[in-house]
Amino acid sequence: MLTKRTKLIDASGIRKVFELGQSVENPINLSIGQPHFDVPQEVQEAAISAIRSGRNAYTLTQGLPSLNKKVMKAAAESVGREFESSMITCGVSGGLVLAFMALVEPGDEVLCPDPYFVMYKHLINLFGGKPVYYDTYPDFIIRGEKIEPLINERTKLIIVSSPANPTGAVHSEEELQEIARIAKERDIFVVSDEIYALFSYDDPHLSMASYADNCLLLGGFSKSHSLTGWRLGFALGPRELLTEMTKLQQYTFVCAPSFAQEAALAAMDIDTSPWRNDYRKKRDLVYSSLKEFGYRLEKPGGAFYIFPECPWGTDEEFTAEAIKNKLLIIPGSVFSERNTHFRISYAAEDETIRRGLEVLKKIRSRG
Ligand SMILES: Cc1ncc(COP(=O)(O)O)c(C=O)c1O
User: Fold this and answer.
1) Where are the domains of the chain?
2) What distance in angstroms lies between residue 218's CA and the mean position of ligand 1's atoms?
3) What is d(CA 124, CA 122) in angstroms, rounded to the nearest whole number?
4) Which atom of ligand 1 is nearest to the CA of 95?
C-alpha cells in the first residue's frame, strides 16, 4: 500500500532517544533543540491582536508583502547586498522542502556536511537525490580540500549551515569565501541554512550570501524568538528559484500561518541581545566545565549546542549511561555517519545545566 518513498526516511535514531527519554522520571533534559525562554510578550500580543482583529484568512502564497519587505530590508543590511526575491515559509523546514523540491532531480548529488541537521539527509533522499557527506571532523569547519574531491558532473548543490546544528560551529570570512569560490568555479548552487544567525557569540554573524550570489538563504524565527510551534521562516535568493518555490508552496503548504506572519513584524523590532548574552554565558560554562573534566571538544561559536567526543564506548553506550543517570543527551550518530560524539543542548535553565554537568563529570570514566 505504501510508497517506496516512505521507506527512504529512517527516523529510528531519534525515536530510540525519545523512547529512552520517556522512561526517565524527572529527567535533566539537555536534548532539546529550542530556546528555553518563551515567545516574547510583545510578539504574543501581536499574534493575539491579529487573531482578534480577524486577520485569520490565507495570506498571499509568498507571504504578507509587509513582512517580505521587512525581511528583504533587514537581510540587505546584514548581508550587504540586495536579494532579487523573497518568500515567507513554514519554518526553515518548509523552506528546505520547497528548495529541494525545486532543485533536486533524481540522481543529483548534494554535498552535505557531516555532522548534519537530520532533515537534510532525509529530504535529499525523499526527492531522489544522493547526500554526499563532506567530513568536518574534528573542528566541524568546512574546508575546500574536503569538498573538492567529492565534486563530479552530478553534483548539484552544497548545503552550508553556520552557526551549525549539532556542533555550534561558526565559519570565518575566509572559510565562507572558499566555499563561495568553489561553488562559483564548479557551478554548484549553495543552500545556506542560517536559522541560528542571531546566536553568534564571539563575532557578528556572517552570511554565506555575502560571498555567494548563487545562493538561497534560509532563515527563520523558531530559534531567534522561540516560536518553534508557529512555523515561520523565510527564503531569499534568485527570482527564478523563488518563483518556483512559491508555486510549489501554493499547492503544498499554501501559506505560512497568518497570525505568525503578523507577529513576526513585531518580532523583528525586538532586541535579541539579552538572549544571546545569556546563551554565551551558558556556552562558556558548559565548555569550560567539560574541558576541566577532561572531555575532548571544540568551543562552539554559536547556536546552543556543543558536540564533544565520547570519552569511552560508542555514542549509544555513552548516552545510555547518561540516561541511566537521568541526563538526556543525543548520540552523535543521529546527526552523523560516525558514532563517536554526543550532542548537548544548553538551551536550559542554569540549574539544569549544572545538574547535567555533574552527571557528565561522574560518567567521564567508565564506571
Ligand atoms: C539547522 C536547522 N535548520 C532548520 C531547522 C528547522 O527549523 P524550523 O523550526 O524553522 O523548521 C532546525 C531545527 O532544529 C535546525 O537546527
Assistant:
1) 4-39+272-362, 41-267
2) 10
3) 5
4) 11
The overall pTM is greater than 0.85: yes
Across the strands, what pairs with 7? none
pLDDT digits (tens, 9 = 90+) for 252-278: 999 999 999 999 999 999 999 999 999
253 lines ligand 1 (CB under 6 A): no
Q: Is 195 in the pocket of ligand 1 (CB under 6 A)?
A: yes
Task: Report the CATH fold assignment for 4-39+272-362.
Answer: Aspartate Aminotransferase, domain 1 (3.90.1150)
Do domains 4-39+272-362 and 41-267 share one topology? The answer is no
Nearest CA-CA partner of 208 in 237, 250, 249: 237
Domain 41-267 has CATH 3.40.640.10: yes
User: Of all residues in the chain, what percent carry a pLDDT higher than 90?
Assistant: 92
CA of 336 to the centre of ligand 1 (A): 16
CB 268 within 8 A of CB 74: yes
Output the CA 294–ligand 1 centroid distance in Å: 31
pLDDT band per the 50, 70, 90 thresholds, residue 6: confident
Q: Residue 18: what pLDDT?
A: 72
Question: What amino acid occupies position 260?
Answer: A
Q: Is ligand 1 within 6 A of the CB of residue 193?
A: yes
